[in-house]
Amino acid sequence: MFLNSKMPFEAYKAAASGKYFVDKSRLLEELLPALGTEERFFCVTRPRRFGKSIMANMIGAFLGKAADAGEVFCDLQIAQYADYHRHLNRHNVIYIDFSEVPRDCGGYLPYISRIQDGINRDLAEAYPDLNIDMSGAVWDILTDIFQKKGDKFVFVIDEWDAVFHMPFMKEGEKRSYLLFLKSLLKGKVYAELAYMTGILPVTKYSSGSEINMFLEYDMATKVKFSEYFGFNDKEVDRLYGIYRGSTRDCRVAREDLAIWYDGYHTACGDRIYNPRSVVCALTDGQISNYWTSSGPYDEIFYYIQNNVEDVKTDIALMVSGEHVEIRLEGYGAVSDQLNTRNQIYSAMVVYGLLTYEEEAGEVYIPNRELMLKFKELLMSNESLGYVHRLARESARMLKATLNGDTQTMTDILEYAHNTETPILSYNSEAELAALVNLVYLAARDKYRVEREDKAGQGYVDFIFYPDKRDADALILELKIDNTPEEAIRQIKEKEYALRFRGKIGEKAKMTGRILGVGISYDRKTKVHSCQVQVLDPGSSRPLPVKSNL
């Protein structure tokens, strides 16, 4: 069940035989030299669905004695390693998945007893000549085995922090769990290697010295191991080539994979894709919310609920594509203590809801999959105040724009300006852009919204790329202390509409209209003005423009 279990081998064998498998086996090259050394305790933390369990299964499959794994690893990169044969299936592996619970588990004691008793049974079966006392402590039995047989053990621990989210866990029992890990591993010569995965770094809960022997590797601040979790561009290119070569009716564009699932930052500056979402999209032949759908609907609100006032404007800016400066707090705050901006955003980085760019010290929303999750937050939570109210107006704003109803557009902008929102001071283009994102938030259900996108002879403020080829596209230019006519003139002169012969045109010919939208604000008169013009008739549907000028 735990000692030399076949489970990690079978799980990794199934993963390696998949169509969209990516070989990350060189991780073993970095772990094997640590066997038996002082620096043999590793804790690798990543957001959920970033390949943690696959890597844990790989280590168990490669080192453990449960099955001959040569058939799986012989064609992988690790097979070129000089000590490949010396370590392949030559070690005793104790594999523990702490996310598993006993039947009808109502408390910590039956939870941890299942693990201790299970390991003891495995050891008693493996060493029948030692007359192992099944009621003894695991670490005492392992010590006795080492003393009498000289055998050492590799510990592979998956989801080490899952127990902290169990409904039965009490505060004092968290301490007991940490002491269990300490007693099992710390200072134990029988522990040849310990590889542990989870979402939370151990320092988040281990404030003392219980398990401080672990070297920690998170995605945001540690370079080591960064290439083994998530997919890079080359890996996604290869997977997409497999998809194209094996799919009769290809509905997923390579560019869509980047828009929806790329954008996470590693500590070494590389951008990576969410691996689960990429594989699911290629398997299903459809772009969708795969990673975010695995969490609760109100997941983001959970993190901000203790201090909505300090973060609502930041969220409005991030939804507009802006980065927000923070001081990453080493993930030291536990979930029920997320009170400051830094604590809130640090936790959201840990859980993969934001990405962190270390050089700039900034967080932002990495991709469209997460952007739609934030859109849900803004549309559904009244506690966000003005941000929520403006987001609720966004469906009406989009409809008015597509109908050329500039009076309604202006009314909505004036309503926005009369709220208490600090972002409407228009002291910078970013603040005006944040407003536009809010009043067009509903468009994200049907459009990919890009800001400062290269188009024609310059950079346009906003382009709304429609998901459907027969829908209308929007090119939106903002002006302060100028006129909407000047905005439309700039759109035409700089030929921004040419952009649709690239990103959209590469996938399917557009049949909808291309609309130029000019929005201006006069700081003296405090008046907004709007204009909408058809730049390319497309389907030839007329635009009943009702200019308020």
Summarize the structure.
This protein is an alpha/beta fold.
User: In what order do the strands lie side by side in the largest sheet?
Assistant: 2-3-4-1-5
- The proportion of residues in beta strands is 15-25%
Computed structural class: alpha/beta
Low-confidence stretches: 503-508, 545-549
Average pLDDT works out at: 88
Gap between N and C termini: 76 Å
- Oligomeric state of this protein: single chain
List strands and helices in order, with pairings.
Layout: H1 7-16, H2 27-31, E1 41-45, H3 52-63, H4 70-73, H5 84-87, E2 92-97, H6 108-126, H7 138-149, E3 153-158, H8 171-185, E4 191-198, E5 215-217, H9 233-246, H10 254-261, E6 264-265, E7 271-272, H11 275-284, H12 299-304, H13 308-319, E8 324-325, H14 341-350, E9 355-357, E10 362-364, H15 368-380, H16 386-392, H17 394-402, H18 406-417, H19 429-439, E11 447-455, E12 458-466, E13 473-480, H20 484-493, E14 514-522, E15 527-536
Parallel strand pairs: 1-4, 1-5, 2-3, 3-4, 13-14
Antiparallel strand pairs: 6-7, 8-10, 9-10, 11-12, 12-13, 14-15
